[in-house]
Amino acid sequence: MQLANPNLLKLQNYINGEWRDGASTIDVRDPANGELLAQVADGSAADAEAAVAAASAAFPAWKSKTAAERAAVLKRWYQLIMDNADDLARILTLEQGKPLAEAKGEIVYGASFIEWFAEECRRAYGQTIPTHNPAMRLSTIRQPVGVVTCITPWNFPNAMITRKAAPALAAGCTVVIKPAVETPLSALALCQLAEEAGLPKGTINMVVGTDAPGIGQVLTQDARVAKFTFTGSTNVGKLLMAQCASTVKKMSMELGGNAPFIVFDDADLDTAVAACVATKFRNAGQTCVSTNRIYVHEAVHDEFVVKLRAAVAEMKIGHGCDDGVSVGPVIHRRAAERVNGLVQDAIAAGAKVELGGDYLPHGENYYAPTLITGVTDEMRIAREEIFGPLAPVQKFSDEDDVVRRANETPYGLAAYVMSENIRRANRVVEALEYGMVACNTGVFSTAVAPFGGSKESGIGREGGVEGMAEFYETKYCCFGA
Ligand code: NAD
C-alpha cells in the first residue's frame, strides 16, 4: 500500500501504549478485487482483558487532568488526522470500498467530532440547586463514567470510532475499542495518530479479533467497565445489551434502520432526487440512515421515477480509488447476495426492475445500482434493512396514510420528508417516530447535533451536547448543616 506516511499502516493491536502481536493474523482484503492488503494481528479475549486492565489503570490520571489539558491533546489528535487525511482516506477506500471522495469526507467528518468534543468538555457544568431546607446546600457535579468499551462496524470504520472515543476521552474516560475485522487498518491508524498526539498509555486501547463473541464478552461483562457503546446491527445489539445486564452497565446502542423517504406532490423534484441519491447510494447504500422505502405521491410518481432513473444511470461504478467513481463494491459477496435475494423476492411478488437488478462484471462484490417500482409494504425489501445500492419505490395518495405506513416498522433511526409546504413539512416531521428527520436534504449528520434512533434502532445519542452527556455521571451532592 503506497502511503505518503507509511507509519499509518499498523498491523498490531494497541494495548497500554504498546503494539502487540496476536497468536495468528487476519487477512485484510480490498473488497473491490480481493487483493490482500495486509495481515493484522488477531487479538483474543485475553488481549481484551489486558486492554481493560490498562484502561482501568490509566483512568485516575486521565480524569484528573483539567478539561483544557485533555482538550489540548485531543486537538493535536484532530490536527494530525487532518494532516494525514489523504492517506487515511486511501486506507479506508482500499479496505472498505467506498469512493475516495466519500472516504475523505468520512475522515473530515470523523475528525470534526474530536475537535467539537475537545471544545465541549470545557463546559461540563454542574448546578447549584435551590434548597428544600435552609440548613442544607444542594448541587450537582459531572464526572466521567470510567472505562468505556466500544464495538464498531465496517461501514464507517473511522467515524464510528471517533464519534465514541472523542466524547469519552474528552469527558475524562479511558477507552477500549474493538473495530470490525473487515476494516482494522483505518482503526489502527487512528491509534497511531492518538499516540503521536500524546494520549497517555492506556487511555486508548484497540483489540482487533476474529473472536468477536469472546472479545465482546469481556467488553460487556468485565466489572471494571462502566459503559459499553455499540454501533452495528440490531440483532447483535440485542445480544450485547443482554450481556451488559449482568453488571448493569450504562449503554449506548446505534443500531439498524429502515428509513422512509416521503416525496409529496408539492416537493421540488430535483431537490428530492438529489437527496434520494445522496442517502440511497452513498457508500453503496451501506449506511444506517440509508433510505430504505421511497414513498412517492401518485401525482408526481412517474416524473420522479424518470428523474431518479436518469440520475442512477449516470453513476460511475468501479474501484473507489479511480477518478469519478460514485459507487464501489459492497463489503463482501454475502452482502451482494443478500441484495440480490431482496430483488428476486420483490420481482416474484410483482415489482418491476427499472434499472440494474443484477451483479456486475467488475468483481464478485459489485451489484448494480438498482431502481425498482411497484413495491409494496409486504415485500421483504420494505420490511428489512437493505444495506445495498437498491432503491425501491412505492406510491401513496394520502398524507395520514403515508405517515402511518412510514411508522409501521420496529426501527426508528432516520426518516426523510420532501415538501415545499412548510405546514405539511412541520406536521409530518413531528408525526414521524424517528430519532432523526431530514427535510429537503439527504445529508444531515454533523458533530454538533444529536445522532441516534428510537424504538429498535437504539438507545442514546452521538454528537452534540447529548453525545457528551452519555459519558458523564451526574453526582448529586448534599451538604448538611
Ligand atoms: P454487526 O452487528 O454484524 O457488527 C458490528 C460489530 O459487532 C463488528 O465489530 C462485529 O465484529 C461485532 N460483533 C458481531 N457479533 C458480535 C458478538 N457476538 N459479540 C461481540 N461483537 C460482535 O454489523 P455490521 O454488519 O458490521 O454493520 C452494519 C449494521 O450496523 C447495520 O445494521 C447498520 O444499520 C448498523 N449501523 C448503525 C449505525 C448507527 O449509528 N445507528 C451506524 C452504522 C451502522
From TrEMBL:
UniProt-listed CDD domains: ALDH_F5_SSADH_GabD
Gene3D superfamilies: Aldehyde Dehydrogenase, Chain A, domain 1, Aldehyde Dehydrogenase, Chain A, domain 2
Keyword annotations of the record: Oxidoreductase
Domain Aldehyde dehydrogenase: residue ranges: 19-476
Active-site residues, record numbering mapped to chain: 254
MF annotations from Gene Ontology: succinate-semialdehyde dehydrogenase (NAD+) activity
Protein origin, superkingdom: Bacteria
GO biological process, one term: gamma-aminobutyric acid catabolic process
Family designation: Belongs to the aldehyde dehydrogenase family.
UniProt xrefs under NCBIfam families: SSADH (TIGR01780)
Protein name: Succinate-semialdehyde dehydrogenase / glutarate-semialdehyde dehydrogenase
Organism (species): Microbulbifer donghaiensis
Taxonomic classification: Bacteria, Pseudomonadati, Pseudomonadota, Gammaproteobacteria, Cellvibrionales
